[in-house]
Write a structure and sequence with these properties.
Elements: H1 3-10, H2 15-23, E1 27-31, E2 34-39, E3 42-47, H3 54-59, H4 66-76, H5 82-88, H6 94-112, E4 121-124, E5 136-137, H7 138-155, H8 179-187, H9 194-201, H10 205-217, H11 238-241, H12 248-261
Helix pairs in contact: 4-5, 7-10, 9-10
């Protein structure tokens, strides 16, 4: 492993998260772009306004009927046992719930721990209404967050794509498009951003960002570029800026001469 890679692997995404994990703290780590819920120093849930939640992944992207989700929240949300209710009532298998829960947790954590997500605050003792599904070590979440950042840049290093409307481009002759890409491109109307497409498709937001960057690298999506800087007029030479005022008397004589010749 190279020295640069070793440094990257050891980099701390959130010093406060690392400290809370070492303290085996329980509560909610709040940041501007999301919240991480910890139990005994391990992450048990994450949510972010930038990502579809577990409900969207299970209903829009999965096979759970929306009314079953609403029933679980209504009947077990106050007891913080929504996950247990979904499984016990036959709405979901344990494995299906765990897979979607982990996908939603890593997805939200990626955005919550993103650079520029603002200051961190910790609400000690806070718990999530979903209830226990599976916990993950904080260092594993940080490591995956770093890996995802690097992957996006390795695929197509144009972060402006992540917040811009997705504008499809026609495929070149003979160019293949996967079924997953085709579904995304059908929903890309030139107005929806990757985050909005993730909600429509019921997919994790990070995976949608990655799909969009891959499509852009293949020339199947427009890559927005920063506007070209406005041209700046070259500075005037010193002899212009330092020129003396014109002789007013001379201008008057020229004016009188022109009037006399008319």
């Amino acid at each position: 492993m190279s020295g640069a890679r070793q440094i990257a692997d050891c980099a701390v995404v959130s010093p406060l998260l690392s400290r809370l994990a070492a303290e085996r703290a329980t509560g909610a780590l709040l940041r501007d772009r999301g919240t991480l819920f910890l139990e005994n120093g391990r992450i048990v849930h994450a949510e972010s306004p930038a990502t579809p939640g577990l409900d969207v992944l299970l209903t829009t992207g999965g096979g759970l009927a929306p009314e079953r989700w609403r029933e679980a929240v209504d009947r077990a949300g106050a007891r913080r046992q929504v996950a247990r209710f979904l499984v016990d009532s036959g709405g979901l298998a344990d494995g299906e719930l765990e897979i979607c829960h982990l996908a939603a947790m890593y997805d939200a954590a990626f955005f919550a721990l993103s650079p520029g997500s603002g200051p961190s605050r910790f609400r000690r003792g806070a718990t999530h209404w979903m209830g226990q599904v599976r916990s993950v070590p904080a260092e594993a979440v940080e490591r995956e967050t770093r890996r995802r950042r690097e992957l996006l840049d390795a695929v197509w290093p144009y972060p402006a794509l992540d917040a811009a409307p997705v504008v499809p481009r026609p495929a070149a002759p003979g160019q293949t498009v996967t079924t997953r890409q085709r579904i995304l491109l059908r929903k890309a109307d030139g107005l929806r951003t990757p985050a909005q497409l993730a909600w429509v498709l019921g997919r994790p937001a990070f995976h949608t960002l990655l799909d969009v960057r891959r499509l852009a690298a293949a020339g199947l999506v427009e890559t927005p570029h920063a506007p070209a800087p406005r041209p700046v007029a070259p500075p005037l030479p010193d002899w212009v800026t330092q020129a003396q005022s014109p002789d007013v008397a001379l201008l008057r004589r020229l004016r009188d001469a022109l009037e006399a010749s008319l």
